[in-house]
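We now fix the convention by which a protein and its fold are recorded. The integers have meaning only within a learned vocabulary of local backbone shapes. A complete example follows; check for yourself that the lines match position by position.
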Amino acid sequence: MKRIFITIISVAFLASCNEKKDVYDASGTFEAVETIISAEASGVIKELNIEEGQLLKPGDTIGYIDATQLNLKKKQLQAQSKAVLSKKPDITSQLASLQERLKQAEHEQQRISNMVKADVATQKQLDDANTEVAVIHKEIDAKQTSLGITSSSITEETAPLNVQVEQVDDQLSKTKIINEVKGTVLTKYVEVNEMATIGKPLYKIADLSTIILRAYVTGDQFAKIKLNQIIKVMVDDGKGKYSEYNGTITGISSRAEFTPKTIQTKDERANLVYAVKITVKNDGYLKIGMYGEVKF
């Protein structure tokens, strides 16, 4: 009787093992699209309000880098631009004397014209008055053109300075650490009062609302799957059972590779497998690095 009981248990155990082994077609680990956010300015980090596990939205201002030197450089450039512009001629004041001469000449022209009508002045006197008015007009036009060229030339001298101010403004905007990616902070690389340089990683973030299972299939299974196919994804719930999710195949590798050491496939004797990317909506229980199993 004892031998029969042991035999029954052994058969049941083997049956359960075979059942568990055949419950999935492929397996893999979960991963996410991770983005490393780097500094865009150099300086001491004055504020960085993030912690690992914190959920961030695009546009969140989470800190800033010291911008004292950039502000001083901007003031210097603005002062240089102002000094250059101070050399611009005052066209109105420099033409004032000519305008006054023109006014007097026109008044004399009118007076002589009236005298000619009254036969108390000669035509030559009127011609001379007309010539004087015309000459003054030409002097005003020439002076105005010359002053305009000088003014434009000086204004153009400030163009490179204005461009430099715009560059500094752009650099100043980058001293603000603004998150541009929706997701959860995975790793924080720096702390307040540390020195940041352009390109230095500040933190790593990933959107975990959807997560990716990278599984591996054999050549026989490769022909049975297609993009956008809905499949069943199973994850061990820690109680000897599986939690099931719907997954969508969003990527299929076109090249075979040797089976990764950490991955088991249904046919463990196969040396070459194909990587499959499966997107799964995360309910919060799926985590990067967790194992998942797939049933086609």
Observations:
- The longest strand covers residues 242-252.
